[in-house]
Write a structure and sequence with these properties.
Blueprint (H helix, E strand, L loop, with lengths): L1 H20 L3 H4 L3 H7 L4 H29 L3 H14 L5 H24 L8 H50 L1 H30 L16
Helix pairs in contact: 1-4, 1-7, 4-5, 4-6, 4-7, 4-8, 5-6, 6-8, 7-8
Length: 222
């Protein structure tokens, strides 16, 4: 029950954030990037929402990875991921995000290796495995949407850096450093998480785990 409550709370945070920020597209998307300039919303101002959405996305994925590591018998890796999840819940500057991204990437590789070497899940581990799937799907789908938003945010941030001129460009880059980090990492993460989620779903099917009623599974197509 604790596992289900954790997943439910994470998904609720995701939905609440979308409602609160109206989706990042309202801050940095497509045509909206022009509206943004017209409305006086700078890349620095919209950066906060961008980073918050990234943290929520990373938390969803790493929560799934932590549960999967437990299900696959990697207890030490699961404990390490939990520490990173706890770190994300506090003040997490660029260095913190960089560290957690690396840990998530290592977890993806570890999970893939374990799944490929393991023919079936132990019966008592299936609950953990099943609990991980919704968060992995939702996190990966959220990352896919965020990739579009960060691409548009990058356009605006580059334009503002250019407008700052030679004297102000360095200062502007420094102010936009964490948003730039998110924007530069999201495309690779979307690809990696998409591949990992596909593998996790395939392994679930091979272990006779029904995916029909799982939230988001019908929206997942990578």
């Amino acid at each position: 029950m604790k596992i289900k409550a954790l997943i439910a709370s994470l998904l609720l945070v995701s939905v609440t954030a979308n409602a609160q920020f109206g989706g990042l597209s309202s801050l940095a998307g497509g045509k909206e990037s022009n509206d943004q300039a017209e409305n006086g919303v700078s890349a620095e101002e919209s950066q906060e929402a961008l980073v918050q959405t990234f943290v929520e996305t990373l938390t969803l994925v790493m929560t799934a990875q932590q549960l999967l590591q437990g299900a696959l018998g990697n207890s030490e890796e699961a404990a390490s991921l939990q520490l990173s999840i706890d770190e994300l819940s506090g003040d997490c500057p660029k260095e913190c995000l960089d560290r957690t991204v690396q840990i998530s990437s290592s977890a993806s590789a570890s999970i893939q290796e374990k799944i490929e070497a393991q023919e079936s899940l132990e019966a008592d581990k299936k609950e953990l495995y099943i609990a991980a799937i919704p968060s992995y799907i939702q996190g990966t789908l959220k990352a896919k949407d965020l990739a579009t938003d960060t691409a548009e945010w990058s356009k605006q941030s580059l334009a503002e850096i250019k407008e700052a001129g030679v004297m102000g460009a360095g200062k502007m880059r420094s102010k936009l450093e964490i948003g730039t980090f998110v924007a530069s990492n999201i495309p690779t993460l979307v690809k990696s998480w998409g591949e990992s989620t596909s593998l996790v779903l395939s392994f679930a099917k091979s272990n006779d785990i029904s995916l029909d009623s799982m939230e988001g599974v019908n929206d997942f197509s990578f």
